[in-house]
Write a structure and sequence with these properties.
The chain is mainly α. It has 17 helices and two strands. It has helices at 34-60, 64-91, 95-130, 136-139, 149-175, 179-198, 206-220, 228-238, 241-255, 277-300, 303-313, 315-323, 330-360, 377-382, 386-406, 415-455, 460-467, and strands spanning 4-6, 23-25. A two-stranded antiparallel ribbon has the order 1-2. The two termini are 60 Å apart. The model is unreliable at 1-40, 48-53 and 460-472 (pLDDT under 50). It holds the Pfam family EXS. It is a multi-pass membrane protein. This is EXS domain-containing protein.
């Protein structure tokens, strides 16, 4: 037993699958016959070949950095091809139809493009939190299988590829006269998104999709106590009111078969630009958030919830006064409704800005940014810098005003301007998330420390029990 030594060739890590182990006895001077000797040598040769294969295969494998650069190169090539095909398709249209052509294309794909931008930035938020001391999983009450920032970015990458590809196909087919095939592109894309979200099987991160859909349901129908994730997602939806508006018009045209047609240009059509459903879709996220605040006041009795509800109610006059431009005479709009709209817009912007800084962010906690425990280049540049707070507060005020201006229904045809403002609002919300999550994490830590300090102070009954050696 102790005289036999296993050869390194017969190691289970180096031995080829299916080969027979060979044990050499160093004390033996000869082998029984020549056949066994030749068999032994052949197996040794096979084992040596099998041992060198994994090493050579690992040697020719490209490095992760090289693979990443190759993927980036493919992504840039794909982006160039999409831009080239899209531009050529737009240039095929006559000058008088080009704006309407682009407007309709942006209408169908604008909601998903904005959602893709939000997913990318949400991944950045999670990346910052993952490298800091903010336990966002505990804040949102997530399970162990929640999506990480890497998985979020993978989803964002696929969205970035699929949505512009479908848009390019729509532009190409529409400009080449294939109207029916062009009309099917946004329909198929929307159907695919819905199917992925509601797919009942355990693929595509079922637990995360269920958590998202459940939170949406709790926002729409707040039949139980409002959690932080309910408030948080509803706040994000208010920054995506443009998505709701375009979704309503896009789905309406799909249902009434007005995709890639000019019927929607008529003001009195079901899905026309003067439809009453447009301001209703814009105001819907604010009504959800308002209902949450009222439910919170009912459960807790805090007057702060009523003040917060008042903030969201100030967005309602901005939206509906602007929509009156299509239903009143121009003189009435200029002399009466426009001044009222401007006044309500100023009230909504300043009130929302005040609430962001004093309530959602809590300026008293502005001592350092993001509370990072692991140094990174970006966090080192941002950590404790005063200009960061000046930038966040100043940009929040400016973007609050521009976002309120975007809620105006009379800007709905300026698709490039509205898309830019909507993207800036999503960027404002991206900044808002950092301080909102950090403020909530600070509150949770303060409550935990308070509970621990109270638990360390035994009351008179506990002292009496301990003195009498009683066990409870």
């Amino acid at each position: 037993m102790f005289g036999g030594i296993v050869s390194p060739i017969n190691s289970p890590h180096l031995r080829k699958s299916g080969s027979r182990s060979v044990i050499y006895d160093l004390g033996a001077n000869e082998v029984e016959n020549g056949a066994d000797s030749s068999l032994l040598q052949s197996e040794d040769a096979n084992d040596l070949k099998g041992a060198t294969l994994p090493i050579s295969a690992a040697a020719v494998m490209p490095s992760p950095m090289l693979l990443w650069r190759f993927k980036v190169l493919l992504f840039l090539v794909w982006g160039f091809i999409c831009c080239k095909i899209g531009w050529d398709s737009v240039m095929r249209m006559s000058a008088d139809k080009r704006d309407l052509f682009l407007y309709e294309a942006f209408l169908y794909y604008n909601p998903l493009l904005l959602a893709t931008l939000m997913v990318w930035l949400w991944g950045v938020n999670l990346w910052f939190f993952a490298h800091g001391s903010v336990n966002y999983a505990k804040i949102f009450d997530l399970d162990q299988n929640h999506l990480t920032h890497r998985e979020i970015w993978k989803w964002a990458t696929w969205m970035t590829i699929i949505v512009p590809t479908s848009m390019t196909a729509y532009l190409y087919l529409y400009s080449h006269g294939e109207v029916s095939y062009a009309a099917s592109q946004p329909v198929l894309l929307y159907a695919a998104v819905v199917m992925v979200l509601i797919f009942p099987f355990d693929i595509f991160h079922l637990s995360s999709r269920f958590y998202f859909l459940r939170t949406l349901w709790r926002i729409v129908v707040p039949l139980q106590a409002i959690s932080f994730s309910d408030f948080f997602l509803a706040d994000i939806l208010t920054s995506m009111a443009k998505v709701f508006s375009d979704l309503e018009r896009s789905v309406c045209r799909m249902v009434h078969r007005q995709v890639a047609t000019i019927a929607w240009l008529e003001a009195d059509s079901v899905c026309g630009s003067h439809s009453v459903a447009i301001p209703l879709a814009l105001v819907l996220p604010y009504l959800f958030r308002l209902n949450q605040c009222l439910r919170q006041y009912k459960d807790t009795g805090e007057r702060t919830a009523l003040l917060n509800a008042l903030k969201y109610s100030t967005a309602v006059p901005v939206i509906f006064l602007s929509a009156l431009k299509y239903h009143v005479f121009p003189e009435s709009w200029t002399n009466l409704y426009r001044p009222l709209w401007l006044m309500s817009a100023v009230v909504n912007s300043l009130y929302s800005f005040y609430w962001d800084v004093t309530r959602d962010w809590d300026l008293s906690g502005f001592t350092r940014i993001f509370k990072f425990s692991k140094p990174h280049l970006l966090s080192h540049l941002l950590h404790g810098r005063k200009w960061v707070y000046f930038w966040v507060i100043g940009s929040n005020l400016v973007l609050r005003c521009t976002w309120t201006y975007k809620l105006s229904a009379h800007l709905r045809h300026n698709h490039l301007t509205v898309f830019t403002i909507a993207s800036l609002e999503i960027f404002r919300r991206f900044q808002w998330i950092f301080f909102r999550i950090e403020n909530e994490w600070n509150k949770m830590n303060s409550k935990t420390q308070l509970q621990l300090s109270v638990g360390d102070m035994p009351n008179e009954e506990e002292k009496l029990l301990h003195s009498n050696n009683h066990t409870v």
